[in-house]
Amino acid sequence: MSREEEILMRDVTSAGIVVSDRISRDVAGHLDLEEALEASRYSSHPYTTHPKEWPPLVEVVDNWELPSVLIERYNAAGGEGTALCGIFPEIRRAWASVDNSLFLWRFDKWDGQCPEYSGEEQAICAVGLAKCKPAVFIEAIQYLLVLATPVELVLVGVCCSGRPDGTDPYAEVSLQPLPEYMVPSDGVTATCVTCNEKGRIFFAGRDGHVYELQYTTGSGWHKRCRKVCLTAGLGSAISRWVVPNVFRFAAVDPIIEMVIDNERHILYARTEDMKLQVFEIGLNGEGPVKKVAEERNLINQRDANYGSRQSTGTRAPSRPAKPSIVCVSPLSSLESKWLHLVAVLSDGRRMYFSTGSSGGSSGAIAGLGGFNSNHYKPSCLKLIATRPSPPLGVIGGLGFGPVALTGRAQNEDLLLKVEAAYYSAGTLVLSDSSPPRASSLLIVNKDFTAQASPPGSLGTSARSSRALRESVSSLPLEGRMLFVADVLPLPVTAITVHSLYSELEEFCGIESLGQSSEKAAGKLWARGDLSIQHILPRRRIVVFSTMGMIELVFNRPVDILRRLLESNSPRSILEDFFNRFGAGEAAAMCLMLAAKIIDTEDLISNVLTERAAEAFEDPRFVGMPQLEGSSALSNTRTAAGGFSMGQVVQEAEPIFSGAYEGLCLCSARLLFPMWELPVMVIKGSSGSSGPNPGNGVVVCRLSAGAMQVLENKIRSLEKFLRSRKHQRRGLYGYVAGLGDLTGSILYGSTDLGVGESSMVRNLFGACSRNLDSVDGGTSNKRQRLPYTPAELAAMEVRAMECLRQLLLRSSEALFLLQLLCQHHVTRLVQGLDANLQNALTQMTFHQLVCSEDGDKMALRLIAALMEHYSGPDGSGTVNDISARLREGCPSYYKESDYKFYLAVECLERAAVASDPAERDSLAREAFNLLSKVPESADLPSVCKRFEDLRFYEAVVRLPLQKAQALDPAGDAFNEHMDAGIRDRALMQREKCYEIITSALHRLKTGASKREFGSPTKPAAANSTLDPASRRKYMSQIVQLAVQSPDRLFHEYLYQTMIDLGLENELLEYGGTDLVPFLQSAGHEPREEAASAMISPVRKLTHSGIFKSSNQAQYLDLLARFYVMKRQHLLAAHVLLRLAERRAVDGGDAPSLEQRCQYLSNAVLQAKNASNMDNFSNSTRSDYDSGLLDMLEGKLVVAQFQIKVKEELEVMTSKLESSDGTTESSQNEDPSLRWNADQAGIIREKVKELSSDLKSITQLYNEYAVPFELWEICLQMLYFASYSGDADSSIVREIWARLIDQAMSKGGIAEACAVLKRVGSHVYPGDGAVLPLETLCLHMEKAAMETLSSGVKPVGDEDVARALLAACKGAAEPVLNAYDQLLSNGAILTSPTLRLRLLRSVLTLLREWAMSVLAQRIGTSSAGASLIIGGTFSLDQTAVINQGIRDKITSAANRYMTEVKRLPLPQSQTEAVYRGFRELEESLLSPFAFERY
After folding, report:
1. At what angle are helices 1289-1322 and 1358-1366 packed, to 10 degrees?
2. How far apart, in Å, are the Cα atoms of 34 and each of 40, 334, 381, 386, 467?
3. How far is Cα 744 from Cα 767, in angstroms, rounded to an integer?
4. Which of 507, 602, 632, 941 has the fewest Cβ atoms within 10 angstroms?
5. What's the CA angle centered on 233, arms 227 and 235, to 5 degrees?
């Protein structure tokens, strides 16, 4: 695309606002006829004559004599036969009847044919043409000719056919007799026939009644054709203006004219006695006929002299004859919403009527856009306004300019004598036969010139500007005017116009159902030439007179300007033209001629276009941009010329020249038919007309032909502007050719330099210099203006350049819509989802051209078009359709789009390729193409295609390239960027990242989803993957992804892999930034604020990456990563951090068991770190030698905490089980209430223990001691190497409480079990934690007391064996404890207690000997006991250690002596004594011991 063809959406949007404003003002400026007539009541100059220096408004372009065969037949009848004539515009035929013969011939050109139809015997008295009702006749019969004779009414079929080349659709007309469709007249002579657009046929009889001729296909007894009287039995409606005594019930007042309003579905009838009747013909013109009103004596309702000329002489003028109604005509709603009928009187006046109960703009009838013709019901006939007759003086061509109606003599000879009249679409044609001149034609139509009001009318200038002003033209006429008809536009033009304007609210009159396009388009003439001269050709009418036929053509304002330019008229005449129409309107006409966008019968020459372009650019015609008012300081001066210091000074606004206004007008009128209407509509819906009604189909609102015509005109206008820019012609061309420097002034970025300012002055001379002076005639002082002339010129040129770009963009949008229509837009739209279809049917052309949403919608439609065109079932290649798109709409379809769809085509071919090498090659080619245009790629669709082909390189790299293209400045990484901009950049990047992560998700889950544009025939590679292949492709994606330098994407990818459970792949293939990511993600919330600036991924909404509930997951992965990388020391630190994590804000925290496991793993990693063979010296120096000890200590403490928690949970369950009573029993029993309260306290403690790790001090003081967990207390003291008191009183007290607690639960046996369990954990030690003497004495006493009480049996050996087990089988420490007790007589005063201790010592000595023997002979202690308890052989005893034998023997001997000393009966001591002696004897053998 060249620089001139580049489109900036900012400029297009700005110009779109201007066009919308211009369209709104253009619509608001159109006055309803009723409003214009009301304003005309106060105007003395309602008529003007055309300037004589200008080409005429109305010209005779051709005239023909009547067909010779008709003249001969008429002469043969002697001029006394029945002769009628008329015109059928629908079939381009004029007709005339002579007696029973009917003649038809072309009225727009003479082709030498005049067929005669004489199938009837009686003279023809009335003729009409009706449109055929559907499904009654064959398709070839399009119209019905209605022939009425005094005895019958006959229908004749009319068949129209065009030339083979389609140039003349009315070339042939043939009549087809229909003998079965005739009905007798029953003595009623028809006077006139009329038909509505639904094919209904009405005729009036001389009996004053209205009839309908009904016809059907006919079957059985039903007649095919019948006559129905619609007014029989109905009394005439009595008007409120009619005096009852004037009725003449006996007289017959025949109807002589009937007309139908097809918009409002009203039938009007005019009688011979000037009565007007109103009939309602039902909803949509198909209902029953109902007479609504009848009015007579209408002439007397208003002053008959209103607007007529008054005499200034002394002689009383003779009273003129009472005027009569010459013709009536319905008014289109385009002319007026409130006036419905106009009647033309014989004196030239017009009477305007309304059928609504409240006429006028303030009445009940809705205003502009509120009129609904299909539901309108007439209720009366009321005269609203009367228009005075045109002036008689224009006949001689004596006057020009405004024509006054006052101050002229009222004379009957000066009154118009209208013989016939015709009114249609704002144009009135009168046949005047005023003496003494011959008959002439007066043509009255609206005057659109904007000339100033005459002097003396300053007080009414505002009202005069709204008044209806009409121009009067006169042409001589030979003979009498018999009939007048419009030459309707050709069908091709009419279809185009109807398609453009039919749905516009302001043009609601042309959308009538059943109405032909030609008639509908003809109604547009009522809007005036200025707004439609670019789309409709010159208006033509045909006048049927007694001397022949005359074709008249109405010159539009642009035609007059064309003639003035072609004739090289003097500048004064051109200036007069610009003054009369206004600089803006005249400049718009110059543009139309220069760009050749008007419909003309002949070609516009290049000389004419150049002259029109020069006039458009001439500042003497169009002016120069300037500030509002005569000068910039006009608002600051008082009327006396001084300054008003107390007034607020309003800054003067720039006013652009007529050239800019003309371009605005021309652009707005071209775009008006589609600007604010949807480009697509739903047709054929069975439901409502909402955004998605029923089951209708989406189609283009405009026809392809209409869009083509409009596109050509818009392109021609844009091409003209571009050519002037290239040629540096005029203000626009010269300044726009300078480039961006001048174009920037509109946006306030820079000013013009001195050179450019001088250029503007030199180019326009005095016109520019005058702008530099400020009130030079009244003040010598100069004050700085808000803008210099050069700046104003640059601003205007910039605005015109924006409009040019808007025109270019609009033409491209039209081209795109046409292309969519050619490829069946309904089928293309079906592939869109419901939301897109709804948005499409609501999108206006303005939005399509000027908005970002419109651009996106266009891209979506192009994508659907390309899919259809180049898919497997398509009809072409990408190059075929791309060439048309690049040529026709490059702003919608750029070079990047072309490469994108070339890539899509490669993917389509790859999808059906069977050879893997070919498939990979095509995929690679597509990837290379898309890599060049990543920003334009439809990534979701193309990446899904690459996924189907298993080409994951493109799936990874294309989204990353697009992310970079969307955020080239790296706003997402910029910490100092505005938050909104940064968030938007992050969101754009996230959408690209999601494509890659979605591919990972589909591979992980095995899911498959068909995206838009994916091939309907899957490739061979698109089969279900086995798990191994999925893992392979997932690894490939991750490896490709980590190669990207986009750290933001890395973090997004890492989070996705964690969510998908791909931790192993993450740890294996993660990049160098994986560790910072995991560290940042694992931060505690209190640390997150300090690290918030580390990574912008925190702002992503992917999956809540930094929620505290997930932080343990990141730290766990970090620890696994360190372990995998053999960084055990770092892993140990991370595991320790995991173990010490706290629960914050209700987040999930590790359980106590998990914390213990983390510590266990940390200990393992610390050990691995210390034992590594390849541990370098540098690392060894950093290694904390106390880390392992700390971790092991924390692990032990955590284990204590678990034990405490478990014990408390057991206590809670016991309390709750004992608390399983009713609430009433709890209230009665205080112990139960205590249990409930205690259980609640313990539960709170358990919750505290579960929340985080406690220190050993906390566990001991806050949990173990308060809840009497003595066993755990001892273990804690042992672990802590407690030595807080010299005599170990605390330890002894705890042991005592523990033993007592155990004995209370299960007696001495339970105490022994506890001793075995606890002692084995705290032994060996320094003796402080395991006080054997205290335990021995305490338990032996307790055992003796239990035995003496006889409560429970106690074994003699239980305590000794428990103490031995507590010392892990070491007999000597236990024996020493017993020895200390036995040697202290103060402690053991009871002989019985001493005997029990000696019995325990015997047990210890036996166990000692057995354990030693068992170790030497390789047997167990049980086996050794059998040996010791039996007879020793020499070989067996030889293995006994001599040293141990000596100790045991010595002890046995000593304790045997101690037994003898006990003051107890021998019966009590004998067993113990014998035991020691046997032990001693068994060990005394010469070979029993042997030193180690």
Report:
1. 80
2. 10, 12, 15, 11, 10
3. 24
4. 602
5. 125
Decide: helix, strand or coil at residue 222.
coil
Say how far apart CA 679 and CA 671 lie, in whole Å: 12
CB 353, CB 430: distance < 8 Å: no
What is the Cα–Cα distance from 673 to 810, expressed in whole angstroms?
13
Instruction: Read off the pLDDT of each residue in 40-51 and give the average, rounded to a whole number.
Output: 81
DSSP per position, 972-1036 = GG-TTS-HHHHHHHHHHHHHHHHHHHHHHHHHHH------TT--SS--TT-SPPPHHHHHHHHHH
Q: Is 663 helix (H, G, I), strand (E, B) or coil?
A: helix
The helix/strand count (H/E) of the chain reads as 52, 34
Q: Could you give the strand order of the β-sheet that contains 47-49, starting from the edge strand earlier in sequence?
A: 401-403, 47-49, 470-476, 440-446, 427-432, 418-424
Q: Which residues contact 662 (CB under 8 A, 6 or more apart)?
A: 583, 584, 585, 586, 587, 588, 589, 590, 591, 616, 622
Task: Read off φ and ψ for residue 1272, nearest 5 degrees.
Answer: -70, -35
Residue length of the chain: 1492
Q: Is 48 helix (H, G, I), strand (E, B) or coil?
A: strand
The pLDDT assigned to 738 comes to: 58
By three-state DSSP, how is residue 472 classified? Answer: strand
- The sheet with strand 325-330 has its strands ordered as 325-330, 341-345, 350-354, 382-387
The residue among 526, 475, 480, 465 whose CA lies nearest residue 501 is: 526
For the cut 60, the answer to whether the pLDDT of residue 372 exceeds it is: no
> Percentage of residues in the chain with pLDDT exceeding 90?
18
Residue closest to 292 by CA, chosen among 377, 389, 395, 173: 377
Please give the model's pTM, rounded to 2 decimal places: 0.71
What's the Cα-to-Cα distance from 562 to each of 53, 60, 559, 614, rounded to whole Å?
14, 18, 5, 13
**Is residue 1045 pLDDT above 50, yes or no?**
yes
Residue ranges of E strands in 488-577: 539-545, 548-554
Flag whether pLDDT at 756 surpasses 70: no
Question: Are 1411 and 1421 spatial neighbours (Cβ–Cβ below 8 Å)?
Answer: yes
The overall average pLDDT reported for the chain is 78
C-alpha–C-alpha distance, residues 419 and 482, integer Å = 9
Summarised one tens digit per residue, pLDDT across range 431-454 is 888 766 667 889 998 988 865 444
Supply the pLDDT for residue 309. Answer: 36
pLDDT tens digits for 515-531? 677 888 888 888 888 88
Cα–Cα distances in angstroms (integers) from residue 1163 to residues 68, 1129, 1168, 1176, in the given order: 126, 10, 9, 21
**For the ranges 104-118, 386-400, 403-417, 1427-1441, which has the lowest average pLDDT?**
1427-1441
Q: Where are the alpha helices (DSSP H) in 374-516?
A: 461-466, 491-501
**pLDDT band at 1108, cuts 50/70/90?**
very low
Evaluate whether 731 touches 620 at the Cβ level (below 8 Å): no
Q: In this structure, what token pair is assigned to residue 356? A: 């609504």
User: Above 80 in pLDDT, residue 782?
Assistant: no
Report pLDDT digits (tens) over 625-650. 888 764 443 343 334 444 444 455 55
User: Who wins on pLDDT, 301 or 989?
Assistant: 989
Q: Cβ distance 1316 to 1308 under 8 Å?
A: no
Tell how far CA 41 is from the center of its chain. 52
| The pLDDT of residue 397 is above 80 | no
CA distance 246 to 259: 26
CA of 1169: how far to CAs of 1117, 1128, 1130, 1184, 1209, in Å? 19, 5, 9, 10, 38
Per the CB < 8 A criterion, the answer to whether 1485 and 1437 are in contact is yes
Q: What is the pLDDT of residues 356-371, one digit of tens each?
A: 876 555 444 433 344 4
Q: What are phi and psi of 731, to 5 degrees?
A: -60, -50
CA distance 390 to 417: 11
Per residue, the 3-state secondary structure of 1224-1251, as one string, reads HHHHHCHHHHHHHHHHHHHHHHHHHHHH
